[in-house]
Amino acid sequence: MDPTQIIINRLLKEVQPGQTIALGKGIPQLIKPHLETSIQIMDLTPNTESRSVQLAVVEAEEVSQMGEFSLTSGQEVPVLEADQWVVTAPHSRADGTPRIVQICQLPISSAGTATTIITELAVIKIQEMGLVLIEVAPGIGADEVKTHTGASIHVADDIKVMEL
Q1: What pTM was estimated for this model as a whole?
Q2: pLDDT (tens digit, 9 = 90+) per residue, 102-150?
Q3: Are 123 and 14 in contact, with CB atoms under 8 Å apart?
Q4: Is there a smaller number of Cβ atoms within 10 Å at the N or the C end of the chain?
């Protein structure tokens, strides 16, 4: 399966009927055609009015183990209260360097807001203890995820295989 499609399929599992969600550019926009009509969708732009949503989703160029993230092309994140911030991205860049890192090297778009990272390899929660690997893609092992992650990552005792 295409890596982007894996991310889309898994991301759709985060969306619940009746939610108000905010979607950033890139991968998050690709879930729109698959959403139920009960979902209220808001596009996440720098001009987005401040409001509260249940779920905000962005595609990041880089995300730190503390939940800070850098968006592509210097995009900015508007002030937005969200119960859950999900960062989506391919796990590694084209040159093989990790997008999930200890400290962001790129300009930070939002400090410490991400709660979940979804890539084509894994679902990772950002908790007080750091990154926690909770799901792996079919055919992918925890060691492979660790190898492609540029930060320390704990493996959940009850790690699961992604349902796609």
Answers
A1: 0.96
A2: 999 999 987 668 999 999 999 999 999 899 999 999 999 999 999 999 9
A3: no
A4: N
Using an 8 Å Cβ cutoff, are 51 and 80 in contact? Answer: yes
Exposure b/e, 14-52, CB count within 10 A at least 16 = b: bbeeebebbbbebbbebbeeebeeebebeebeeebeeee
What are the structural domains, with CATH classification, of the chain? 3-161 (3.40.1080.10)
CA–CA distance, 94 with 42 (Å, rounded to integer): 30
| Rounded Cα gap, residues 35 and 145, in angstroms | 29
The sign of the CA dihedral 138, 143, 147, 149 is positive
Going by C-alpha positions, the residue among 124, 129, 128, 127 that lies closest to residue 149 is 124
